[in-house]
Amino acid sequence: MHTPTFATPEDAETAFYTALAHADLEAMMAVWSEDDEVVCIHPGGNRLVGITAIREAWRQMFASGTRISVALHQGLQWNCGLTTIRSVRQLVQVNGDDRLEPPLLATNVFIKGARGWRLVMHHASPAPDTDNLHGHDTPTILH
User: Fold this and answer.
1) Bridge-partner residues for 140, per DSSP?
2) 74 and 1 in contact (C-beta within 8 Å)?
3) pTM for the complete prediction?
4) How confident is the model at residue 137 (pLDDT cuts 50, 70, 90)?
5) Quick one: pLDDT at residue 134?
6) What is the DSSP string of 79-137?
């Protein structure tokens, strides 16, 4: 399988959420760095460290048959050389379910290496009830 090169952190993030929507394990893992120090925390879940643990968690999630799509809002981005941190609000929709899921807050950390930008950390957690989802949707880049 050809491993894609992501030219920007935004390209890698788009690929992450596309792989999630399609429950595509190989596409999901192509976004992740293969470093031993990668970290993933699903809402209400344990901290997963290392590519093997992360692959297994995504495999189990995708094997469940549940398909979700995520709309991103109010993105904040911090760039520092070869590292980009994105903080986003996620509105999750379970396919086939009309109920509105509570929003999530997520932090995605990307690093640039020889194979382009790769995800090294994804942490999503429920947003507090007081979280304002009706604020501006314009992404903000912080330097």
Assistant:
1) 76
2) no
3) 0.85
4) very low
5) 44
6) EETTEEEEEEEEEEEETT--SPPPPEEEEEEEEEETTEEEEEEEEEEEPPTT--TTS--
CA distances from 88 to 12, 42, 45, 100 (A): 14, 14, 19, 18
Tell me if residue 78 falls in helix, strand or coil: strand
- The helix (H) or strand (E) run that includes residue 49 is strand 47-49
Q: Phi/psi of residue 101, each to 5°?
A: -75, 150
**Pairing between strand 39-41 and 116-126?**
parallel
Predicted confidence (pLDDT) at residue 136 exceeds the cutoff of 50:
no
| Contact indicator for 140, 98 with CB cutoff of 8 Å | no
| Sign of the four-CA dihedral 33, 39, 42, 43 | negative
Structural domains in the chain, CATH included, are 9-126 (3.10.450.50)
Q: Which residues partner with 73 through β-bridges?
A: 89
